[in-house]
Amino acid sequence: MKKLFLMGRSEAGKTSLTQVLRGEELRYHKTQYVNTGADIIDSPGEYAETKRCGLGLACFSFEADVLALLIAADEPFSLFEADCQCFTNRPLIGIITKVDSPFANVPMVRGWMENSGCERIFEVSSMTRDGIGELLDYLKEEPVRLTLEQAKARQARGLPEWGDVSQYGLA
Ligand SMILES: Nc1nc2c(ncn2[C@@H]2O[C@H](COP(=O)(O)OP(=O)(O)O)[C@@H](O)[C@H]2O)c(=O)[nH]1
Ligand SMILES: [Mg+2]
């Protein structure tokens, strides 16, 4: 199971998605702190909303196997800059939540996520459970485990640690 780190503004649906992925009942809970011990690391939206706290997200991300930018399908703008993957050395995915919303604009959010460097994008609803199975299947795949030497060899060539590098003889 991959350890997932969720980033997104307040009300984007991070805590609800965490509850659904854990098979818990949906209930409102204000996220006050970051607990990095669990399989899914939820974070308070305030971190993504202020520049200083945004740095904290970069630090917490090193506790995870995969990072997710989370944007609700009905959000009017994106908090995330272009090419966010450059602040981390983990795979970056996008999770579009609330696809059931009557105000959903999935293609627009997908465009923001592509611009921010997400290598895969999932469309989900914690209310209807749409797309949750596909996300769980992805999380159940084992993360790539590398030795320090393997990681350094890839880094020296400017390659991501998790990508297919068979053509470089580094597998
Ligand atoms: N329609 C809809 N509402 C959702 C969905 N997920 C969360 N919400 C609602 O959005 C609000 C914020 O959710 P929450 O998970 O606390 O967001 P967080 O601040 O990112 O942790 C709550 O009122 C949820 O009931 C969803 O998939 N569809
Ligand atoms: Mg929350």
Explained architecture:
By secondary structure, this protein is of the alpha/beta class. The chain folds into two domains: 4-140, 3-Layer(aba) Sandwich (Rossmann fold), CATH 3.40.50.300; 145-171, no CATH class. Helices cover 30% and strands 13% of the residues. A five-stranded parallel sheet has the order 2-1-3-4-5, with helices on both faces. Helix 1 (14-21) links the parallel strand 1 and strand 2 (40-41). The longest helix has 11 residues, at 51-61. It starts with a strand and ends in a 15-residue tail after the last helix. Bound molecules: guanosine-5'-diphosphate and magnesium ion (MG).
Major sheet strand order: 2-1-3-4-5
Taking the alpha carbons of the first and last residues, their distance comes to 21 Å
State the total count of DSSP E strands. 5
Judging from the principal axes of the Cα atoms, what is the shape? Answer: globular
Query: What structural class do the secondary elements suggest?
Result: alpha/beta
Radius of gyration: 16 Å
Helix content: 25-40%
Query: Cofactors and ligands present?
Result: guanosine-5'-diphosphate, magnesium ion
CATH topology of the largest domain, what is it called? Answer: Rossmann fold
What is the correct CATH architecture of the largest domain? 3-Layer(aba) Sandwich
Helix and strand succession?
EHEHHEEHEHH
